[in-house]
Predict the 3D structure of the following.
Amino acid sequence: MSEIPAAEHPPDGAGRREALKRVAVALRTGGVGFALAGGYAGWALGGPEPENDVDFVVAEAEAGRAEEVLADAGLDVRQPPEDWLFKVYSDGAQVDILFRLAGIPVDEALLARAGEQEVLSVKMPVVDATDLIIGKLAALNEHACDLSKVLPTARALREKIDWSRAEDETDWNDIAVACLFLLRRIGVAPRAEHGVEPAGH
């Protein structure tokens, strides 16, 4: 396993899509439970195609085996300083394999909620829309509160999201609470939560 290089030339969308397929096939062939996550999961569910790296999630307990399976498939597996993911490169395209989201271990329950669908002619599990938006909301903090990472996905997938569960599972995060308030104000999320209309409405 090699170290992350100082710089990589980001590939175009076609390169990222090829890497997505190659990693998904390798994980499935190796018998590792996984799901497409992040911006490309949003794209697969009907949102805009992202311009950043591809993300997959695996259960924390299987992270080590996932590394071995991907390395055995000829992919370039690299260990970053962070202790919640590892990175895979395929012809220069970067794929992040995450086993913790906002400090919370990925578990079998999250993977079980993923829906099987065809992505780029390859059948694979894609994280549930609610889990996807929960992950994006939970990642917000006072140093990284770019709502452009949340709004396009929330708008595109709003009818597939269980907003009550999203609110319940991110109520510990004040930035996420503020983001949900904004999403309600602009009509992306429903204004009434848990059957209670916000004050003044």
Notes: Confidence is low (pLDDT under 50) at residues 1-9, 195-201. The domain at 1-127 is CATH 3.30.460.40 (Beta Polymerase; domain 2).
